[in-house]
Design goal:
Elements: E1 2-4, E2 7-9, E3 18-19, E4 23-25, H1 34-47, H2 62-106, H3 125-133, H4 143-152, H5 164-183, E5 198-199, E6 202-204
Parallel strand pairs: 3-5, 4-6
Antiparallel strand pairs: 1-2
Helix pairs in contact: 1-2, 2-4, 2-5, 4-5
């Protein structure tokens, strides 16, 4: 076990660089047509009283408030699409980790580096750290939050399952906490995989 700074790295036998399976990022189109999503977002705006009601003498403000409702619904839809993008990244990363497990198991030099625990073992967070160490381009997606969302939701829920508070403020905190809790389930801190000993491609399936 090598210790560099405050990080522990597993010792990979030999000197060769090991090629891992490609990370296939499935950033597919939205789950629902945009007009349907906007309608559902508008329902959230109405049901959660995000716009105060008008008094009788304030009816001239209705046009401005209608624009405000539209802007809030659009903002909610954009936040939801961001949540879904993170979820899809998390789903892609967990599938990539599964493929990496198979690769490690098939190679004598790597076989003993992973503990044979029930999936998804928290020690697999080493692969998420490897992605960060390799500076994988994510277009602003926070990998830990992405994996946290995927660990929380088996499928991305429709927009009307979320509150405006979750979409606006809470999703990053919930996702980050889920990831940190999962990663912290280890009795010992997972050792990092030395990034210089591994290579892989990142393929955007939407391209």
């Amino acid at each position: 076990m090598d210790i560099i700074g405050n990080r522990k790295y597993v010792e990979v036998p030999g000197q060769k660089t090991h090629e891992l399976p490609p990370l296939l990022v499935r950033s597919a189109p939205p789950l629902s047509p945009l007009d349907e999503m906007m309608s559902l977002a508008a329902g959230i705006v109405e049901s959660e009283d995000m716009i105060p009601g008008l008094a009788a003498n304030e009816l001239p403000l209705e046009v401005a408030l209608e624009q405000r409702r539209f802007d809030l619904a659009l903002n909610l839809a954009e936040h939801y699409l961001r949540v879904v993008l993170h979820w899809r990244w998390g789903d892609s990363v967990l599938e990539w980790i599964r493929q990496c497990e198979i690769t490690f198991e098939s190679r004598a030099a790597l076989r003993n580096l992973l503990r044979p625990d029930i999936w998804p073992h928290a020690g697999r967070s080493s692969f998420v750290t490897l992605l960060a160490d390799k500076s994988v381009p994510t277009d602003g997606v926070v990998l830990e939050n992405a994996v946290g969302l995927r660990l929380t939701f088996r499928q991305p829920p429709p927009i009307d399952c979320f509150s405006n508070q979750f979409l606006f403020y809470l999703n990053n905190t919930v996702a980050g906490t889920a990831y940190q809790t999962w990663a912290g389930l280890n009795s010992v801190q997972p050792a990092s995989l030395p990034p210089e000993r591994f290579c892989f491609q990142v393929v955007n399936m939407a391209a």
